[in-house]
Amino acid sequence: MPPDTVLLNKDRLHARMAELQLDAVIATTPENVTYMSGFWALPQWIRRGPQAYVVWLAPGKGEAEIITSTATLDLVADQQIWVERVRRYGAFHVDGHSDDATDPVSQRLLELQEAHDHGDALSALVAGITDAGLGRARIGIDEIGLMPGQLEALRERLPGASLVPAAGLFRNVRAVKTPEEIARLARVAEIAERSIKAALGIAREGASEVALARAFHAQTVQDDAFPVLGCIGFGERSALMNVQPSDRKLRQGDVIRFDVGGRYRHYRADIARIATFGEPSDEVRRYHRALLAGVERACELIRPGARVADVFEAAIETVRREGIGHYRRNHVGHGIGIDGYDAPSLTATSDEIIEAGMVLCVETPYYELGRWGLQVEDMVVVRADGVERLMATSGDLIVVAP
Fold first, then answer.
1. How far apart are CA 301 and CA 37, in angstroms?
2. For 90-176, where are the E strands, in sequence order?
3. Among 99, 169, 192, 209, which is disulfide-ready with 269 (CB 3.0 to 4.6 Å)?
4. Residues 83/132, Cβ–Cβ less than 8 Å
5. Distance linking the first and last C-alpha atoms of the chain
């Protein structure tokens, strides 16, 4: 696979492994398995329980390996994956013979099915660790993706190994994006903006929230992304933080709040824009302007070496000074990538430091029940001299003519 399609920030991973004196790390959550290998294991993404792993060794200690169920080997054969070694477990019957399978994917699938069946996920993982010579190694394991009792079972079956919880390590490594990750995030941000435009294109009196959501998601799919986030609310419903589109009809004077995004080649968008159907009130204009000023102030401060807590404080104080004196928030943004909430989280209590290559969603939502919700949220990438916006549109208030 060409190096520019690899998601993993190998240098950062190896540096963190060296700091923690780890001989290997094991990815277990769907996000980390995909990040480490390019392998998207469908059952693991859509429900809790199915296990897939990536065993990644420190430099010079051996090759990485994917461990997955036999039922997902077609995905291994059909995807762009940069980890070549694959270990399978479990039975899954597929008819076919090498004489009939002339296409490369089917041929690869038949090859993968010939490998030894290790029975179950943990047995396969133990065999992978043992075969790699890691039986007495110090291993960082992403504990979040394991089912209850599995970590204890691994410790019993690998008594000589030291298994160290490493979910935080993976989160830290994923915080700084590779050029390929940034390119995908820029594309999905663009798709989200185009989808908002498509939704507003059908905004007419009597149109429902559901109708705008259909237009939004249809454009997302047309642009080769998948629907994920679609909070679209009118009027009083725009103040519901996680509003799900309903049959509420659009009326003149309504605020329309979009907190939306899709998924493109594993990467997420999360942006927010505000429109009004007809001219907004002076209060809506003033509040929205204050929220936009908070985002702009945060973006002025975001650069390598900046303290997350300082960015939070400046954004909050700016919103208050510019027109919402009672404004409160628990965060003003977060990282984004394969996960919708990557590190860092822009909170008052965070001790994290901004680094070049982070991609952030910077946001200042405001919800007033019974009236309206207002929100500005932009996606930016941190560069050496500040932020580069991934947005083609500004966060200015959009006025839709009735």
1. 34
2. 138-141, 162-165
3. 192
4. no
5. 51
d(CA 394, CA 279): 19
Furthest CA-CA distance within the chain: 74
Do the Cβ atoms of 286 and 273 come closer than 8 Å?
no
Residue 275: alpha-carbon gap to chain centroid: 26
**Range 41-49, long-range pairs (CB < 8 A, 24+ positions):** 41/68, 41/72, 41/75, 42/72, 42/75, 43/69, 43/71, 43/72, 48/147, 49/147
State how far the Cα of 309 lies from the Cα of 165, in Å rounded to an integer.
26
Tell me the whole-structure pTM to 2 decimals: 0.96
Helix axes 121-131, 150-157, angle to 10 degrees: 40
374: left (phi over 0), alpha (psi -120 to 50) or beta: beta
Rounded to whole angstroms, what are the CA distances from 205 to 252, 268, 402? 7, 31, 7
DSSP, res 86: E
DSSP assigned state of 145: G
Give the mean model confidence (pLDDT) for residues 332-336.
98
Residue keyed to tokens 């989200």: 192
Instruction: Say if residues 274 and 255 touch (Cβ distance below 8 Å).
Output: yes
Here the tokens at position 349 are 């209590």
pLDDT for 3 beyond 60:
no
